[in-house]
Amino acid sequence: MKFKSITMENFMRYKGVNTIEFSCDPGKNVTVVLGDNTVGKTTIAQAFRFGLYGAVNMEKWKNADDYQLLNNDVLAFMDADSKAAVSVTIVAADEEKQYTICRKTIYSRNYPQMTCREFQKKVSMKIADLQAPDVVTEVDERQVEYVINELFPRNLSHYFLFDGERWSDVTVNGVRENIKESVHSLTGLSSYQAALLHLKDMGSNSVTRKFKSKITGDGMMYDSLENDRMRIEHMIEKEQEHVKNIDINIKNYQKKCDEIEQYLEENKSTEMLQGKLKNLQIVREEQRKRANNHYKTLVSQISDKAYMMFSQPLIEACVKMVKAVAGERRDIPHMRQGTIDYIIKTGRCICGTPLTEGSHELECLLEQRNYLPPADIGSLLGEFERTGNRWKNRTDGSYEELIEMAQNVDDSVHDYEETCNQLEILNRRMDASFDFAEKRRLLRHYRSEMEKTSVEKGECTGKISNYKKEIENIENNMRRREAANEENRKWRARLEVAEALYAKMKKEFEQKERKTFLELNKNVQLNFEKMFNAKDKKIQLTEQYEIQMLYQTERGYREEKNLSEGEKIARNFAFIVTVMEYSRQKKAEKLGVSELEGDTLPIVLDGPFSKLGDENIKLIAGVLPEVSEQVILFMLKKDWKYTGLDSYVGAAYCIDKKAEEAFALIRKMEEL
Fold this sequence. Notes:
Elements: E1 2-9, E2 17-21, E3 30-34, H1 41-53, H2 72-76, E4 83-93, E5 97-109, E6 116-129, E7 132-138, H3 144-151, H4 157-160, E8 161-163, H5 179-187, H6 189-201, H7 207-214, H8 219-266, H9 271-310, H10 312-326, H11 337-346, H12 360-369, H13 378-394, H14 398-434, H15 437-480, H16 486-531, E9 537-541, E10 547-553, E11 556-559, H17 565-591, E12 603-606, H18 614-627, E13 631-635, H19 637-640, E14 649-656, E15 665-669
Parallel strand pairs: 3-13, 3-14, 8-12, 12-13
Antiparallel strand pairs: 1-2, 1-4, 4-5, 5-6, 6-7, 9-10, 10-11, 14-15
């Protein structure tokens, strides 16, 4: 697919009609549009987005209302009754057909203000056969958006419409898109997902669900089981929909967190303040852990020995008091009054002597009884005293230990609170300088919401898993109760084929997805080395397809998150080239050819080299004509000489704009 031309009418900086015709020569597949800063290079890139998707790429902290598409010079000459049109016409072609897309919006003026409002919007598309140019088909207006998306998938637009000045997010093009889905589309894996969805994953409209509905059973029990299955399947669909909504919320929260974090990073006061803040945060965390450990040790020691130590004065006083009134001990150790009462009751002493009324033996026993507990506490006092001595021995020196431990707790808490105060002061300094207070509050809020929704997602996933087990049990029961007839056997056989196919395709998909991930990770590093002169750096993909840059240290590679704008672009540029190159390579392998012609999307690059060094500009530029059949560049005049692309240029334009005029003009250049 190649772009043949783009025509802009009164679009933003461009007054009247301006047309750029792009080179479609296979040997000279580069078109370059040169201009200084602020003259309108990015406006042309925005025209591509508007023409294809009816939207423009918004900068951070702005929304759609901040963008006025109608040229200001045209607007200035409008009155309250007049109308003016903004339109973008894009002509593209593949090997067989030519596609003409025209998107137009008519505006009226909010007179006397210099603002306008939409009056009418329209998009049209015509398709012509290259072999018979006179045969032109006009696409139904209701189908235009669908056809455009088939030709130029919107979820891939951040790959072939590359904004170098904004491509600095951790994901793609400053927008947190689902990169994994985009990679699946480019590499053909999305066809597996579509098949899996059709077979089983789309719920009540899936093939397996419809086959199951054709199978009937005997009796009310079967009907009841089928109703239970349908009810639980509906609950699964409900939970799955909830999970999708949760994923959208998490994605939005993450995007907001990324934007705020980047804002805070970009507006930090100084590297010294930021470094001090990070160091204090590390120190505070260590102090918090130390204070908790000291506190736990103190609590453990108090729980173990404090009651023994604190009871010592009371024990000593009690022993002293009881001894003063108890007199000399005449009890038999470990014996109680109940023992004597038992001997008397038997009528015979343990020595065998009979105990009769008035006998000397009975009188001796009764006398001893008076010296035993509870009438006499001598033995109890002995046990009490021994326990007190044992506790005293165990707690010797414990008071000093507890004092020392308590002091450790006080000191560690004091250090922690002091560091917290320093952090608070530092945060206030930063907040006062840059008004970060509200941003930080929002960041905490979004992180908290992400945590809550992640927990909620886990609960939903658990419910889905349990529901699926219930359905499996119900279906086993239903299978046993199916009516034994030819129609059921037919649908059961079809169902088993569909489920076997689903299992096979799912296994193949997971294997191919893993292989794709590993190959992309390998190739992205090779392209990074080829395109960037940085021997101490490398890049890699995470399992979530986020792009990390790693720096070499004495202890190996570590991730570096605080990248310069140039490094962010370098990292992402290697990724986009790798994905496009990989897609082309895999399609060629599938067709059994060494190289594939005419089966890639063109790459449109706005300011791709503005934040890169001269050497890296040349390395990157040299790769571009090889990975795409058409390259369109909007760039600064001063950067062009470093690209080394003169021999690839098939068309060149220059943007002219006078300082006193509110519009720009595009002029074709015969030579650079």
